Known about the structure:
Blueprint: H1 2-24, H2 40-50, E1 55-57, E2 60-65, E3 68-75, E4 80-89, H3 95-107, E5 112-117, E6 120-128, H4 134-150, H5 167-181
Amino acid sequence: MRATLLTCALAVTLFGAMPALAQAEDPPAVPEPSEPAMTLDRMGGILAALDPDARQDGASFQLTLADIPVIVITDPRSDRMRAMVPIRSADGLEPDELMRLMQANFDSALDARYAVARGRLWGVFIHPLSPLEREQLISGLVQTINLARTYGQTYSGGAQVFGGGDSNDIYRELFEELLNRGQEL
């Protein structure tokens, strides 16, 4: 009984002091953004630097990177963007392959994902629009392209690869090439 009362008294003392302790601490500092917010115009400039033949239609873009067609759709009012690469028809996807796609989404697709929409298998990168930074955009595009390139093999976004293979160098080459194209932005 005495131990129970002592435990209750200790709990009241500790938890009663918690609000005072919480108020005494300074709130965590919010980091300053390292670059301006992503806007439709800014994204358009970055994508045009990556592919001078990129086309804009309203809030969407079509471009080609590493011989892969890429569609980027934005919704500034909802503060969202989506980059998409068509991979194949979804017709005929077997349960084992769908399972493999879900496994890749968990461990090797990284920030990109496999998705099915409108009867097609896609590689997609989805992100809030305004906090998206230039390098994040380029990395997301490269990962999405790599999902298409590695479909049926490693199912990898390519940014992080375990082991001593060549995949990491291939990813790094494309990432550096695209970063350098958009350097002035």
